[in-house]
């Protein structure tokens, strides 16, 4: 399978049959999948979400899968109305579609009782709008990556808001301080390390990458920053490689993106750090305006200023774009935005 390639080129990940079987059984323990249900599938089959969490799991329990050749809002909504699935497996851009696409109300979506959202951070405001529109008690999130499989899930009965859930059976996890390498305590942020029977063998023909990814005693360094609360719920903050360092202080792009998406003139957004000689990096927002809405760079900067600490302000400015580059699974391609910023700096 292929890694997402959000921070560099995608890499081929070697996954054993044993790991796939183990991870399917681990996910079944959550109790979300039922053989009577129907699954509308638009997620790419080379991604862990589409292959593990939907396709293979559906084959294990014998559920019906309707596979779309590509995602189109009206076709997706039509298939939901026709096949009446109880549960949807989506990514944040589709949640944005549910919240802002004007034709959603034209379709009968009453069969939906559960929505699982994964692959990238989800804005709190978007989540609340979708919950209200679809009359959902919660939006379920989970955690995993191609290299380590699916490791956490928020179940129907053990939901915790903004969390990706509790650890699945036989998975081991620890949170490690990125500066000292020491194991963090509860509610302390650090890099997420994973062990378990669902772990991959590493990257194909990339021994140096494997040395960086695996510790000598077998822990997988995920590159994600998170924390675990007193009850064992995991909260993912952002990618380690994507954290913006402003004068030594860390800024999570996803936090700024959540805030920006609460503005009614903003349809989509991506945040990166741009190099600065004095501060190290400055947060910059790439913004897609909502159709028919007007907003200026100064208005966006003031809006963010009123809601964040000083080190999180958009000192790198705002640039308006027609779309935010994303992987097929919905993750923002920040490397593309960085290349755009680099090209702009040379003009």
Question: Describe it for me?
Answer:
Helix 1 packs across helix 2 and helix 4 packs across helix 5. Strand 2, helix 2 and strand 3 form a beta-alpha-beta unit. Helix content is 27%, strand content 26%. The mean pLDDT is 87. It folds into two domains: 228 residues, Rossmann fold (3-Layer(aba) Sandwich), CATH 3.40.50.12780; 103 residues, GMP Synthetase, Chain A, domain 3, CATH 3.30.300.30. With 347 residues, the chain is of the alpha/beta class. The chain is globular, with a radius of gyration of 20 Å. The strands form six sheets. It has a five-stranded mixed beta sheet with strand order 4-5-6-7-8. Strands 9-10-12-13 form a four-stranded antiparallel beta sheet.
Please sum up the structure shown.
By secondary structure, this protein is an alpha/beta fold.
Intertermini distance:
39 Å
> Major sheet, described briefly?
5 strands, mixed
What is the strand arrangement across the widest sheet? 4-5-6-7-8
Q: State the domain count.
A: 2
- CATH fold-level topology of the largest domain: Rossmann fold
CATH class of the largest domain, please? Alpha Beta
Relevant CATH superfamily of the largest domain: ANL, N-terminal domain
**Unreliable segments of 5+ consecutive residues:** none
Q: Pairing-aware structural class of the strands and helices?
A: alpha/beta
Number of alpha- plus pi-helical segments: 9
What is the H-and-E element order? EHEHEHEHEHEEEEEEHEEEEHEEHEH
Write the layout of secondary structure elements.
Blueprint: E1 13-14, H1 17-28, E2 38-41, H2 48-61, E3 64-67, H3 73-83, E4 87-90, H4 92-100, E5 114-117, H5 124-134, E6 139-145, E7 149-153, E8 166-167, E9 172-176, E10 190-195, E11 202-203, H6 207-213, E12 220-228, E13 234-239, E14 244-246, E15 249-251, H7 253-260, E16 266-276, E17 280-289, H8 297-305, E18 318-320, H9 334-345
Parallel strand pairs: 2-3, 4-5, 5-6, 17-18
Antiparallel strand pairs: 1-11, 6-7, 7-8, 9-10, 10-12, 12-13, 14-15, 16-17
Helix pairs in contact: 1-2, 4-5
């Amino acid at each position: 399978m292929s890694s997402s390639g959000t921070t560099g080129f995608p890499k081929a990940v070697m996954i054993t049959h044993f790991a796939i079987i183990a991870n399917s059984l681990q996910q079944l323990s959550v109790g979300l999948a039922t053989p009577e249900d129907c699954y509308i599938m638009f997620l790419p089959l080379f991604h862990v979400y589409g292959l593990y969490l939907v396709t293979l799991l559906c084959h294990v329990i014998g559920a019906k899968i309707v596979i779309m050749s590509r995602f189109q809002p009206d076709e997706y909504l039509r298939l939901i109305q026709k096949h009446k699935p109880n549960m949807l497996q989506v990514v944040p851009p589709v949640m944005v579609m549910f919240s802002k696409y004007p034709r959603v109300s034209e379709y009968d979506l009453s069969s939906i009782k559960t929505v699982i959202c994964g692959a990238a951070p989800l804005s709190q405001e978007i989540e609340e709008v979708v919950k209200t529109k679809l009359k959902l008690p919660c939006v379920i999130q989970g955690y995993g990556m191609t290299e380590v499989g699916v490791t956490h899930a928020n179940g129907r009965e053990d939901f915790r808001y903004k969390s990706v859930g509790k650890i699945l059976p036989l998975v081991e996890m620890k949170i490690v301080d990125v500066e000292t390498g020491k194991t963090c305590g509860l509610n302390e942020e650090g890099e997420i390390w994973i062990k378990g029977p669902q772990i991959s063998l590493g990257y194909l023909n990339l021994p140096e990458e494997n040395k960086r990814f695996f510790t000598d005693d077998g822990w997988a360094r995920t590159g994600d920053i998170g924390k675990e609360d007193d009850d064992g719920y995991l909260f993912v903050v952002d990618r380690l490689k994507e954290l913006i360092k402003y004068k030594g202080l860390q800024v999570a792009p996803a936090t700024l993106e959540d805030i920006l998406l609460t503005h009614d003139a903003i349809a989509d957004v991506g945040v990166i750090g741009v190099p600065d000689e004095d501060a190290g990096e400055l947060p910059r927002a790439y913004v897609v305006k909502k159709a028919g809405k007007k907003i200026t760079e100064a208005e966006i900067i003031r809006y963010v200023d009123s809601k964040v600490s000083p080190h999180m302000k958009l000192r790198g400015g705002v640039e308006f774009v027609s779309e935010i580059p994303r992987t097929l699974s919905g993750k923002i391609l920040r490397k593309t935005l960085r290349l755009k910023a680099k090209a702009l700096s040379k003009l």
